[in-house]
Write the C-alpha coordinates for this entry.
Amino acid sequence: MSAEGALRHDAFVYETRDEYVDRTIAFLMEGLDAGEAAIVGDSREGLAEMREAFGDDAEQVVFCDLGSTYTRPARTLAAYYGLFLGQLRKAPSVRAVAEMQLGPTPADWDEWTRYEAITNVSYSHLPVWIVCTYNATGLPDPVREGVWQTHAGKLADGWQESREFEDPREVVRNLTPAPNSFPELRAFSVENDVESFRELLARELVAEKVPDAKVLDMLVAGTEIATNALRHGGGIAQVRVGRAEGRFVCEVVDRGSGFDDPLAGYLAPRAGTASGLWVARQLAWRVEFFGAPEGFTARITL
Amino acid sequence: MDLDADPGPGSWLLPEQERDLVIATEAGDEAACRQLVDAFLPAIGAIARRYDTGGGVERGELIDEGVVGLLRAASRYEPRLNTPFWAYASWWVRQAMQKLVAEVSRPVALSDRALRGLARIAAARRDHIRDHGSDPTTGELAAATGFTAAQLGSLLAIELTPRGIDEGLYADDGSTATFGETVADPHADEDYERVLDGIQMQEVRYLTAALDDRERTVLSGHYGLGQPPQTLREIGEGLGVTPERVRQIEGVALQKLRDAAAQPPGAVTTLT
Protein backbone atom coordinates (compact mmCIF):
# COMPACT_ATOMS: atom_id res chain seq x y z
CA MET A 1 0.00 0.00 0.00
CA SER A 2 1.17 3.52 -0.65
CA ALA A 3 2.62 5.70 2.05
CA GLU A 4 -0.35 8.07 1.77
CA GLY A 5 -3.11 5.57 2.38
CA ALA A 6 -4.84 2.51 1.10
CA LEU A 7 -3.92 2.63 -2.56
CA ARG A 8 -1.34 0.28 -4.04
CA HIS A 9 -0.19 1.20 -7.55
CA ASP A 10 2.19 -1.20 -9.27
CA ALA A 11 3.36 -1.89 -12.80
CA PHE A 12 3.85 -4.94 -14.95
CA VAL A 13 5.89 -4.72 -18.14
CA TYR A 14 5.24 -7.91 -20.08
CA GLU A 15 7.08 -9.46 -23.00
CA THR A 16 4.25 -11.50 -24.52
CA ARG A 17 0.48 -11.41 -24.38
CA ASP A 18 0.48 -14.91 -22.95
CA GLU A 19 2.59 -13.66 -20.07
CA TYR A 20 0.22 -10.71 -19.63
CA VAL A 21 -2.84 -12.95 -19.54
CA ASP A 22 -1.33 -15.55 -17.21
CA ARG A 23 0.08 -13.14 -14.65
CA THR A 24 -2.80 -10.69 -14.51
CA ILE A 25 -5.42 -13.41 -14.27
CA ALA A 26 -3.52 -15.00 -11.40
CA PHE A 27 -3.41 -11.60 -9.69
CA LEU A 28 -7.12 -10.98 -10.13
CA MET A 29 -8.18 -14.51 -9.21
CA GLU A 30 -6.26 -14.24 -5.96
CA GLY A 31 -8.32 -11.16 -5.16
CA LEU A 32 -11.60 -12.75 -6.17
CA ASP A 33 -10.87 -15.74 -3.96
CA ALA A 34 -10.38 -13.32 -1.06
CA GLY A 35 -13.69 -11.56 -1.71
CA GLU A 36 -12.28 -8.56 -3.55
CA ALA A 37 -13.72 -7.04 -6.72
CA ALA A 38 -11.84 -7.43 -10.00
CA ILE A 39 -11.63 -4.96 -12.86
CA VAL A 40 -9.91 -5.26 -16.22
CA GLY A 41 -9.50 -2.00 -18.11
CA ASP A 42 -8.27 -2.46 -21.64
CA SER A 43 -9.12 -1.81 -25.24
CA ARG A 44 -11.93 -3.85 -26.74
CA GLU A 45 -9.48 -6.28 -28.31
CA GLY A 46 -7.61 -6.85 -25.05
CA LEU A 47 -10.85 -7.41 -23.19
CA ALA A 48 -11.93 -10.12 -25.61
CA GLU A 49 -8.66 -11.90 -25.02
CA MET A 50 -8.98 -11.64 -21.25
CA ARG A 51 -12.60 -12.70 -21.22
CA GLU A 52 -11.73 -15.76 -23.24
CA ALA A 53 -8.89 -16.62 -20.88
CA PHE A 54 -11.02 -16.20 -17.75
CA GLY A 55 -13.54 -18.71 -19.02
CA ASP A 56 -16.40 -19.26 -16.58
CA ASP A 57 -14.77 -16.95 -14.03
CA ALA A 58 -15.32 -14.02 -16.39
CA GLU A 59 -18.75 -13.53 -14.81
CA GLN A 60 -17.08 -12.30 -11.63
CA VAL A 61 -14.95 -9.72 -13.40
CA VAL A 62 -15.88 -6.22 -14.55
CA PHE A 63 -14.48 -5.63 -18.03
CA CYS A 64 -14.20 -1.98 -19.01
CA ASP A 65 -13.55 -0.68 -22.48
CA LEU A 66 -11.30 2.23 -21.68
CA GLY A 67 -10.07 2.87 -25.18
CA SER A 68 -11.99 6.12 -25.42
CA THR A 69 -11.32 7.43 -21.92
CA TYR A 70 -7.59 8.03 -22.31
CA THR A 71 -8.08 11.55 -23.58
CA ARG A 72 -6.97 13.87 -20.80
CA PRO A 73 -5.50 12.65 -17.49
CA ALA A 74 -8.17 14.38 -15.41
CA ARG A 75 -10.93 12.62 -17.32
CA THR A 76 -9.23 9.23 -17.18
CA LEU A 77 -8.77 9.63 -13.44
CA ALA A 78 -12.48 10.39 -13.12
CA ALA A 79 -13.43 7.36 -15.20
CA TYR A 80 -11.44 4.99 -13.02
CA TYR A 81 -12.63 6.79 -9.90
CA GLY A 82 -16.22 6.06 -10.89
CA LEU A 83 -15.40 2.42 -11.53
CA PHE A 84 -13.68 2.01 -8.20
CA LEU A 85 -16.52 3.64 -6.28
CA GLY A 86 -19.02 1.40 -8.02
CA GLN A 87 -17.15 -1.77 -7.07
CA LEU A 88 -16.41 -0.60 -3.54
CA ARG A 89 -20.16 -0.55 -2.91
CA LYS A 90 -20.11 -4.30 -3.44
CA ALA A 91 -16.73 -5.38 -2.10
CA PRO A 92 -14.35 -4.20 0.61
CA SER A 93 -11.49 -3.67 -1.81
CA VAL A 94 -10.71 -3.77 -5.49
CA ARG A 95 -7.99 -5.19 -7.69
CA ALA A 96 -7.64 -3.67 -11.13
CA VAL A 97 -5.52 -4.38 -14.16
CA ALA A 98 -5.22 -1.36 -16.42
CA GLU A 99 -3.56 -1.53 -19.83
CA MET A 100 -2.05 1.84 -20.59
CA GLN A 101 -3.24 3.48 -23.81
CA LEU A 102 -0.11 5.28 -24.93
CA GLY A 103 0.02 7.74 -27.78
CA PRO A 104 2.64 8.12 -30.48
CA THR A 105 4.51 11.30 -29.59
CA PRO A 106 6.96 12.24 -26.81
CA ALA A 107 4.36 14.75 -25.62
CA ASP A 108 1.87 11.89 -25.23
CA TRP A 109 4.41 9.89 -23.28
CA ASP A 110 5.04 12.79 -20.90
CA GLU A 111 1.32 13.37 -20.51
CA TRP A 112 0.63 9.77 -19.49
CA THR A 113 3.69 9.51 -17.30
CA ARG A 114 2.31 12.54 -15.47
CA TYR A 115 -1.00 10.73 -15.23
CA GLU A 116 0.67 7.70 -13.69
CA ALA A 117 2.40 9.90 -11.12
CA ILE A 118 -0.88 11.63 -10.28
CA THR A 119 -2.62 8.27 -9.81
CA ASN A 120 -0.47 7.66 -6.73
CA VAL A 121 -2.15 10.60 -5.04
CA SER A 122 -5.54 10.91 -6.70
CA TYR A 123 -6.97 7.70 -5.22
CA SER A 124 -4.70 7.44 -2.22
CA HIS A 125 -7.73 7.12 0.07
CA LEU A 126 -9.29 4.14 -1.70
CA PRO A 127 -8.61 0.46 -0.88
CA VAL A 128 -7.61 -0.34 -4.42
CA TRP A 129 -4.67 -2.27 -5.83
CA ILE A 130 -3.96 -1.22 -9.42
CA VAL A 131 -1.52 -3.00 -11.69
CA CYS A 132 -0.78 -0.91 -14.77
CA THR A 133 0.36 -3.07 -17.65
CA TYR A 134 2.68 -2.15 -20.49
CA ASN A 135 3.65 -4.18 -23.51
CA ALA A 136 7.46 -4.19 -23.62
CA THR A 137 7.47 -4.59 -27.39
CA GLY A 138 8.19 -1.18 -28.84
CA LEU A 139 7.87 0.54 -25.47
CA PRO A 140 9.78 3.82 -25.85
CA ASP A 141 12.67 4.25 -23.42
CA PRO A 142 11.26 7.43 -21.81
CA VAL A 143 8.02 5.60 -21.09
CA ARG A 144 9.83 2.60 -19.62
CA GLU A 145 11.82 4.95 -17.41
CA GLY A 146 8.62 6.72 -16.42
CA VAL A 147 6.96 3.44 -15.48
CA TRP A 148 9.52 2.80 -12.77
CA GLN A 149 9.45 6.43 -11.60
CA THR A 150 5.69 6.36 -11.12
CA HIS A 151 4.95 2.92 -9.65
CA ALA A 152 6.11 1.97 -6.19
CA GLY A 153 6.12 -1.73 -6.99
CA LYS A 154 6.57 -3.93 -10.00
CA LEU A 155 5.61 -7.43 -10.95
CA ALA A 156 8.64 -9.36 -12.11
CA ASP A 157 9.64 -12.77 -10.71
CA GLY A 158 7.56 -11.71 -7.74
CA TRP A 159 6.46 -8.34 -6.36
CA GLN A 160 9.43 -6.02 -6.15
CA GLU A 161 9.89 -2.51 -4.92
CA SER A 162 10.82 0.03 -7.61
CA ARG A 163 14.07 1.72 -6.61
CA GLU A 164 13.44 4.41 -9.21
CA PHE A 165 10.13 5.53 -7.71
CA GLU A 166 10.00 9.32 -7.31
CA ASP A 167 7.83 11.82 -5.47
CA PRO A 168 4.74 12.18 -7.71
CA ARG A 169 4.74 15.95 -7.29
CA GLU A 170 8.29 16.17 -8.60
CA VAL A 171 7.53 13.95 -11.57
CA VAL A 172 4.51 16.05 -12.49
CA ARG A 173 6.40 19.29 -11.96
CA ASN A 174 9.28 18.16 -14.16
CA LEU A 175 7.06 16.94 -16.98
CA THR A 176 4.56 19.80 -17.10
CA PRO A 177 5.35 22.14 -19.98
CA ALA A 178 5.63 25.85 -19.24
CA PRO A 179 2.45 27.71 -20.17
CA ASN A 180 2.46 29.60 -23.45
CA SER A 181 2.00 33.34 -23.45
CA PHE A 182 -1.25 34.58 -24.97
CA PRO A 183 -0.92 38.35 -25.57
CA GLU A 184 -4.01 38.23 -27.79
CA LEU A 185 -6.35 37.81 -24.80
CA ARG A 186 -8.52 40.79 -23.85
CA ALA A 187 -8.06 42.12 -20.30
CA PHE A 188 -10.96 43.24 -18.09
CA SER A 189 -11.34 44.50 -14.58
CA VAL A 190 -14.27 43.04 -12.68
CA GLU A 191 -16.01 43.70 -9.42
CA ASN A 192 -14.86 41.41 -6.67
CA ASP A 193 -17.87 39.17 -6.91
CA VAL A 194 -18.50 35.96 -8.76
CA GLU A 195 -21.75 37.11 -10.38
CA SER A 196 -20.08 40.02 -12.20
CA PHE A 197 -17.32 37.67 -13.29
CA ARG A 198 -19.82 35.17 -14.68
CA GLU A 199 -21.73 37.82 -16.60
CA LEU A 200 -18.53 39.09 -18.19
CA LEU A 201 -17.41 35.58 -19.00
CA ALA A 202 -20.77 34.62 -20.52
CA ARG A 203 -20.79 37.76 -22.69
CA GLU A 204 -17.35 36.93 -24.08
CA LEU A 205 -18.16 33.25 -24.58
CA VAL A 206 -21.29 34.11 -26.55
CA ALA A 207 -19.39 36.72 -28.57
CA GLU A 208 -16.86 34.04 -29.50
CA LYS A 209 -19.72 31.75 -30.59
CA VAL A 210 -18.84 29.01 -28.12
CA PRO A 211 -21.62 26.33 -28.14
CA ASP A 212 -24.12 26.68 -25.30
CA ALA A 213 -23.14 23.43 -23.56
CA LYS A 214 -19.52 24.51 -23.50
CA VAL A 215 -20.52 27.97 -22.26
CA LEU A 216 -22.03 26.34 -19.20
CA ASP A 217 -18.95 24.18 -18.73
CA MET A 218 -16.79 27.28 -18.74
CA LEU A 219 -19.15 29.20 -16.45
CA VAL A 220 -19.02 26.40 -13.88
CA ALA A 221 -15.25 25.93 -14.18
CA GLY A 222 -14.69 29.69 -14.12
CA THR A 223 -16.88 30.05 -11.06
CA GLU A 224 -14.66 27.61 -9.20
CA ILE A 225 -11.50 29.42 -10.22
CA ALA A 226 -12.91 32.85 -9.42
CA THR A 227 -14.20 31.63 -6.06
CA ASN A 228 -10.73 30.33 -5.31
CA ALA A 229 -9.22 33.71 -6.17
CA LEU A 230 -11.68 35.49 -3.90
CA ARG A 231 -11.27 33.12 -0.97
CA HIS A 232 -7.56 32.40 -1.10
CA GLY A 233 -5.99 34.86 -3.55
CA GLY A 234 -6.93 38.23 -2.08
CA GLY A 235 -9.47 38.97 -4.82
CA ILE A 236 -9.58 39.15 -8.60
CA ALA A 237 -7.07 41.63 -10.05
CA GLN A 238 -7.84 41.02 -13.70
CA VAL A 239 -9.67 38.71 -16.06
CA ARG A 240 -8.27 37.94 -19.51
CA VAL A 241 -10.34 36.14 -22.12
CA GLY A 242 -10.37 35.32 -25.81
CA ARG A 243 -9.35 32.68 -28.29
CA ALA A 244 -5.84 31.29 -28.35
CA GLU A 245 -4.58 28.32 -30.35
CA GLY A 246 -8.15 27.78 -31.53
CA ARG A 247 -9.66 27.40 -28.07
CA PHE A 248 -11.50 29.74 -25.73
CA VAL A 249 -9.25 30.75 -22.85
CA CYS A 250 -10.06 32.48 -19.56
CA GLU A 251 -7.37 33.68 -17.18
CA VAL A 252 -8.12 34.87 -13.66
CA VAL A 253 -5.31 36.91 -12.13
CA ASP A 254 -5.55 37.24 -8.37
CA ARG A 255 -3.89 39.51 -5.80
CA GLY A 256 -2.24 36.78 -3.75
CA SER A 257 1.14 35.11 -3.79
CA GLY A 258 -0.24 31.96 -5.35
CA PHE A 259 0.61 28.35 -4.66
CA ASP A 260 2.92 25.75 -6.04
CA ASP A 261 1.10 22.44 -6.17
CA PRO A 262 1.30 20.60 -9.49
CA LEU A 263 -1.37 18.18 -8.26
CA ALA A 264 -3.97 20.86 -7.54
CA GLY A 265 -7.31 19.65 -8.85
CA TYR A 266 -6.25 16.06 -9.34
CA LEU A 267 -7.38 14.67 -5.99
CA ALA A 268 -10.54 12.65 -6.46
CA PRO A 269 -13.33 14.13 -4.30
CA ARG A 270 -13.26 12.98 -0.69
CA ALA A 271 -14.47 14.17 2.68
CA GLY A 272 -12.57 17.14 4.01
CA THR A 273 -11.06 18.18 0.69
CA ALA A 274 -12.40 20.94 -1.55
CA SER A 275 -13.31 19.69 -5.01
CA GLY A 276 -13.54 22.99 -6.88
CA LEU A 277 -10.36 22.54 -8.91
CA TRP A 278 -11.26 18.90 -9.62
CA VAL A 279 -14.53 20.18 -11.09
CA ALA A 280 -12.66 22.77 -13.18
CA ARG A 281 -10.29 20.13 -14.54
CA GLN A 282 -13.19 17.84 -15.47
CA LEU A 283 -14.84 20.54 -17.55
CA ALA A 284 -11.83 22.10 -19.23
CA TRP A 285 -9.32 20.90 -21.77
CA ARG A 286 -6.57 22.17 -19.53
CA VAL A 287 -6.18 24.14 -16.29
CA GLU A 288 -2.84 25.79 -15.47
CA PHE A 289 -1.56 27.83 -12.55
CA PHE A 290 1.48 30.05 -12.90
CA GLY A 291 3.10 33.27 -11.81
CA ALA A 292 2.97 36.14 -14.33
CA PRO A 293 3.97 39.83 -14.27
CA GLU A 294 0.30 40.72 -13.72
CA GLY A 295 0.02 38.36 -10.74
CA PHE A 296 -0.69 34.74 -9.93
CA THR A 297 -2.76 33.38 -12.78
CA ALA A 298 -5.19 30.51 -13.15
CA ARG A 299 -5.83 29.71 -16.80
CA ILE A 300 -8.73 27.62 -18.06
CA THR A 301 -8.54 26.41 -21.64
CA LEU A 302 -11.88 25.10 -22.94
CA MET B 1 5.61 5.95 -34.11
CA ASP B 2 7.25 6.88 -37.35
CA LEU B 3 6.37 10.55 -37.47
CA ASP B 4 9.36 11.08 -39.70
CA ALA B 5 7.61 9.27 -42.50
CA ASP B 6 5.45 12.09 -43.81
CA PRO B 7 1.96 10.71 -44.35
CA GLY B 8 0.99 13.77 -46.38
CA PRO B 9 -1.71 16.26 -45.49
CA GLY B 10 -4.47 13.64 -45.27
CA SER B 11 -7.21 16.06 -46.32
CA TRP B 12 -7.97 19.11 -48.41
CA LEU B 13 -8.45 21.25 -45.30
CA LEU B 14 -6.25 24.19 -44.46
CA PRO B 15 -4.33 23.65 -41.21
CA GLU B 16 -6.46 26.17 -39.35
CA GLN B 17 -9.71 24.65 -40.59
CA GLU B 18 -8.42 21.25 -39.59
CA ARG B 19 -7.50 22.46 -36.11
CA ASP B 20 -10.89 24.10 -35.59
CA LEU B 21 -12.74 20.99 -36.72
CA VAL B 22 -10.67 18.80 -34.41
CA ILE B 23 -11.35 21.06 -31.45
CA ALA B 24 -15.06 21.27 -32.23
CA THR B 25 -15.23 17.50 -32.64
CA GLU B 26 -13.61 16.99 -29.27
CA ALA B 27 -16.17 19.38 -27.82
CA GLY B 28 -19.02 17.24 -29.12
CA ASP B 29 -20.05 19.22 -32.22
CA GLU B 30 -21.68 16.58 -34.41
CA ALA B 31 -21.57 18.62 -37.62
CA ALA B 32 -17.86 19.27 -37.15
CA CYS B 33 -17.32 15.59 -36.46
CA ARG B 34 -18.97 14.62 -39.73
CA GLN B 35 -16.97 17.21 -41.64
CA LEU B 36 -13.76 15.96 -40.09
CA VAL B 37 -14.52 12.34 -40.89
CA ASP B 38 -15.64 13.25 -44.39
CA ALA B 39 -12.41 15.14 -45.00
CA PHE B 40 -10.20 12.28 -43.87
CA LEU B 41 -12.17 9.32 -45.24
CA PRO B 42 -10.13 9.10 -48.44
CA ALA B 43 -6.93 8.96 -46.40
CA ILE B 44 -8.47 6.38 -44.06
CA GLY B 45 -9.60 4.38 -47.08
CA ALA B 46 -6.08 4.41 -48.46
CA ILE B 47 -4.77 2.94 -45.22
CA ALA B 48 -7.62 0.42 -45.09
CA ARG B 49 -6.57 -0.83 -48.51
CA ARG B 50 -3.23 -1.85 -47.04
CA TYR B 51 -4.88 -3.87 -44.29
CA ASP B 52 -7.63 -5.40 -46.36
CA THR B 53 -6.78 -9.10 -46.24
CA GLY B 54 -9.64 -9.90 -48.54
CA GLY B 55 -11.19 -12.33 -46.11
CA GLY B 56 -11.44 -12.12 -42.37
CA VAL B 57 -12.00 -8.39 -42.11
CA GLU B 58 -14.25 -6.51 -44.47
CA ARG B 59 -13.21 -3.22 -45.89
CA GLY B 60 -16.12 -1.46 -44.22
CA GLU B 61 -15.03 -2.81 -40.85
CA LEU B 62 -11.52 -1.54 -41.41
CA ILE B 63 -12.84 1.88 -42.29
CA ASP B 64 -15.08 1.82 -39.22
CA GLU B 65 -12.05 1.12 -37.09
CA GLY B 66 -10.11 3.81 -38.91
CA VAL B 67 -12.83 6.34 -38.12
CA VAL B 68 -12.70 5.28 -34.47
CA GLY B 69 -8.95 5.83 -34.59
CA LEU B 70 -9.41 9.24 -36.17
CA LEU B 71 -11.89 10.30 -33.48
CA ARG B 72 -9.62 8.96 -30.78
CA ALA B 73 -6.85 11.08 -32.21
CA ALA B 74 -9.17 14.10 -32.27
CA SER B 75 -9.99 13.59 -28.60
CA ARG B 76 -6.30 13.69 -27.63
CA TYR B 77 -4.71 15.92 -30.24
CA GLU B 78 -2.88 18.92 -28.85
CA PRO B 79 -2.65 21.61 -31.55
CA ARG B 80 -0.16 23.66 -29.53
CA LEU B 81 2.53 21.06 -30.27
CA ASN B 82 2.39 21.89 -33.99
CA THR B 83 2.38 18.26 -35.06
CA PRO B 84 0.25 18.11 -38.22
CA PHE B 85 -3.04 16.45 -37.34
CA TRP B 86 -2.81 13.70 -39.92
CA ALA B 87 0.74 12.87 -38.88
CA TYR B 88 -0.72 12.25 -35.42
CA ALA B 89 -4.06 10.76 -36.42
CA SER B 90 -2.74 8.35 -39.04
CA TRP B 91 -0.90 6.51 -36.26
CA TRP B 92 -4.18 6.01 -34.40
CA VAL B 93 -5.94 4.97 -37.59
CA ARG B 94 -3.30 2.38 -38.41
CA GLN B 95 -3.24 1.15 -34.84
CA ALA B 96 -7.01 0.69 -34.78
CA MET B 97 -6.92 -1.29 -38.02
CA GLN B 98 -3.94 -3.37 -36.90
CA LYS B 99 -5.77 -4.31 -33.72
CA LEU B 100 -8.85 -5.36 -35.64
CA VAL B 101 -6.80 -7.50 -38.01
CA ALA B 102 -4.88 -9.00 -35.10
CA GLU B 103 -8.09 -9.68 -33.23
CA VAL B 104 -9.61 -11.73 -36.00
CA SER B 105 -6.45 -13.52 -37.11
CA ARG B 106 -4.78 -14.47 -33.84
CA PRO B 107 -4.61 -18.17 -33.08
CA VAL B 108 -7.02 -18.97 -30.31
CA ALA B 109 -8.02 -21.93 -28.26
CA LEU B 110 -11.67 -22.11 -29.19
CA SER B 111 -14.23 -21.90 -26.48
CA ASP B 112 -17.36 -23.98 -26.59
CA ARG B 113 -19.29 -20.90 -27.56
CA ALA B 114 -16.96 -20.20 -30.50
CA LEU B 115 -17.19 -23.81 -31.66
CA ARG B 116 -20.98 -23.64 -31.54
CA GLY B 117 -20.83 -20.40 -33.50
CA LEU B 118 -18.66 -21.91 -36.20
CA ALA B 119 -20.99 -24.89 -36.44
CA ARG B 120 -23.94 -22.53 -36.88
CA ILE B 121 -22.15 -20.66 -39.66
CA ALA B 122 -21.21 -23.90 -41.41
CA ALA B 123 -24.81 -25.10 -41.29
CA ALA B 124 -26.10 -21.78 -42.64
CA ARG B 125 -23.56 -21.88 -45.46
CA ARG B 126 -24.54 -25.44 -46.40
CA ASP B 127 -28.23 -24.50 -46.40
CA HIS B 128 -27.57 -21.46 -48.59
CA ILE B 129 -25.52 -23.41 -51.14
CA ARG B 130 -28.18 -26.08 -51.25
CA ASP B 131 -30.97 -23.55 -51.80
CA HIS B 132 -29.21 -21.04 -54.07
CA GLY B 133 -26.30 -22.86 -55.60
CA SER B 134 -23.79 -20.21 -54.51
CA ASP B 135 -21.79 -19.13 -51.46
CA PRO B 136 -23.69 -16.77 -49.16
CA THR B 137 -22.53 -13.18 -48.75
CA THR B 138 -21.52 -11.94 -45.33
CA GLY B 139 -24.86 -10.15 -45.06
CA GLU B 140 -26.77 -13.31 -45.87
CA LEU B 141 -24.72 -15.29 -43.36
CA ALA B 142 -25.37 -12.64 -40.74
CA ALA B 143 -29.09 -12.76 -41.41
CA ALA B 144 -29.14 -16.55 -41.26
CA THR B 145 -27.10 -16.90 -38.08
CA GLY B 146 -28.01 -13.81 -36.11
CA PHE B 147 -24.37 -12.81 -35.76
CA THR B 148 -23.23 -9.27 -36.46
CA ALA B 149 -20.76 -8.69 -39.26
CA ALA B 150 -18.02 -8.15 -36.68
CA GLN B 151 -18.84 -11.40 -34.90
CA LEU B 152 -18.88 -13.25 -38.18
CA GLY B 153 -15.53 -11.73 -39.12
CA SER B 154 -14.00 -12.83 -35.85
CA LEU B 155 -15.28 -16.37 -36.15
CA LEU B 156 -14.51 -16.80 -39.83
CA ALA B 157 -10.99 -15.46 -39.37
CA ILE B 158 -10.21 -18.55 -37.34
CA GLU B 159 -10.52 -20.62 -40.49
CA LEU B 160 -8.44 -18.36 -42.70
CA THR B 161 -4.92 -18.97 -43.86
CA PRO B 162 -3.13 -15.73 -43.00
CA ARG B 163 -1.54 -13.85 -45.88
CA GLY B 164 0.77 -10.94 -45.24
CA ILE B 165 -0.36 -7.64 -46.63
CA ASP B 166 3.23 -6.85 -47.48
CA GLU B 167 3.69 -10.15 -49.27
CA GLY B 168 5.37 -9.40 -52.60
CA LEU B 169 3.70 -10.07 -55.92
CA TYR B 170 5.73 -10.29 -59.11
CA ALA B 171 4.34 -9.47 -62.53
CA ASP B 172 5.57 -10.76 -65.87
CA ASP B 173 6.96 -7.34 -66.74
CA GLY B 174 9.15 -7.40 -63.65
CA SER B 175 7.18 -4.81 -61.73
CA THR B 176 6.42 -5.58 -58.12
CA ALA B 177 3.68 -4.69 -55.72
CA THR B 178 2.50 -5.88 -52.35
CA PHE B 179 -0.56 -7.99 -51.89
CA GLY B 180 -2.17 -5.22 -49.88
CA GLU B 181 -1.72 -2.70 -52.67
CA THR B 182 -3.54 -4.85 -55.17
CA VAL B 183 -6.67 -5.55 -53.19
CA ALA B 184 -9.68 -4.50 -55.18
CA ASP B 185 -11.74 -1.59 -53.87
CA PRO B 186 -15.03 -1.71 -55.79
CA HIS B 187 -17.28 -0.46 -53.02
CA ALA B 188 -15.25 2.37 -51.53
CA ASP B 189 -17.86 5.08 -52.07
CA GLU B 190 -20.61 2.96 -50.55
CA ASP B 191 -18.39 2.26 -47.56
CA TYR B 192 -17.74 5.95 -47.06
CA GLU B 193 -21.44 6.74 -47.02
CA ARG B 194 -22.22 3.87 -44.70
CA VAL B 195 -19.49 4.91 -42.28
CA LEU B 196 -20.65 8.50 -42.30
CA ASP B 197 -24.17 7.38 -41.53
CA GLY B 198 -22.96 5.16 -38.74
CA ILE B 199 -20.70 7.57 -36.92
CA GLN B 200 -21.18 7.26 -33.23
CA MET B 201 -20.28 10.48 -31.54
CA GLN B 202 -18.00 10.24 -28.59
CA GLU B 203 -19.90 10.55 -25.38
CA VAL B 204 -19.83 14.12 -24.19
CA ARG B 205 -20.95 15.19 -20.79
CA TYR B 206 -23.87 17.54 -21.13
CA LEU B 207 -24.36 18.93 -17.68
CA THR B 208 -27.69 20.48 -18.55
CA ALA B 209 -29.30 17.06 -18.26
CA ALA B 210 -29.22 17.73 -14.52
CA LEU B 211 -31.49 20.79 -14.87
CA ASP B 212 -35.24 21.20 -15.08
CA ASP B 213 -36.93 23.47 -17.64
CA ARG B 214 -37.18 26.47 -15.34
CA GLU B 215 -33.53 26.28 -14.38
CA ARG B 216 -32.55 26.08 -18.06
CA THR B 217 -34.75 29.08 -18.81
CA VAL B 218 -33.07 31.12 -16.09
CA LEU B 219 -29.52 30.26 -17.15
CA SER B 220 -30.24 30.75 -20.85
CA GLY B 221 -31.94 34.06 -20.21
CA HIS B 222 -29.40 35.48 -17.80
CA TYR B 223 -26.33 34.47 -19.79
CA GLY B 224 -27.75 35.03 -23.26
CA LEU B 225 -27.57 31.47 -24.53
CA GLY B 226 -29.38 31.40 -27.85
CA GLN B 227 -31.09 34.70 -27.09
CA PRO B 228 -30.21 38.23 -25.96
CA PRO B 229 -29.29 38.31 -22.25
CA GLN B 230 -32.02 39.38 -19.83
CA THR B 231 -31.94 40.91 -16.39
CA LEU B 232 -33.16 38.91 -13.42
CA ARG B 233 -36.24 41.16 -13.33
CA GLU B 234 -37.07 40.42 -17.00
CA ILE B 235 -36.65 36.71 -16.46
CA GLY B 236 -38.74 36.90 -13.30
CA GLU B 237 -41.56 38.65 -15.15
CA GLY B 238 -41.60 35.85 -17.70
CA LEU B 239 -41.73 33.19 -15.00
CA GLY B 240 -44.05 35.08 -12.66
CA VAL B 241 -41.54 35.19 -9.81
CA THR B 242 -39.45 37.89 -8.13
CA PRO B 243 -35.89 38.76 -9.23
CA GLU B 244 -34.64 37.37 -5.93
CA ARG B 245 -36.39 34.08 -6.65
CA VAL B 246 -34.72 34.01 -10.08
CA ARG B 247 -31.37 34.50 -8.38
CA GLN B 248 -32.13 31.57 -6.08
CA ILE B 249 -33.13 29.35 -9.00
CA GLU B 250 -29.92 30.27 -10.78
CA GLY B 251 -27.88 29.43 -7.69
CA VAL B 252 -29.52 26.03 -7.42
CA ALA B 253 -29.00 25.41 -11.14
CA LEU B 254 -25.29 26.26 -10.96
CA GLN B 255 -24.86 24.05 -7.94
CA LYS B 256 -26.52 21.18 -9.80
CA LEU B 257 -24.14 21.69 -12.72
CA ARG B 258 -21.20 21.71 -10.36
CA ASP B 259 -22.37 18.56 -8.61
CA ALA B 260 -22.87 16.83 -11.95
CA ALA B 261 -19.33 17.75 -12.96
CA ALA B 262 -17.93 16.43 -9.68
CA GLN B 263 -19.56 13.06 -10.25
CA PRO B 264 -17.56 10.44 -12.14
CA PRO B 265 -18.62 10.31 -15.78
CA GLY B 266 -20.87 7.57 -17.01
CA ALA B 267 -18.95 7.22 -20.24
CA VAL B 268 -17.08 4.07 -19.31
CA THR B 269 -18.50 1.04 -21.00
CA THR B 270 -18.62 -1.78 -18.52
CA LEU B 271 -19.10 -5.20 -19.99
CA THR B 272 -20.03 -7.64 -17.29
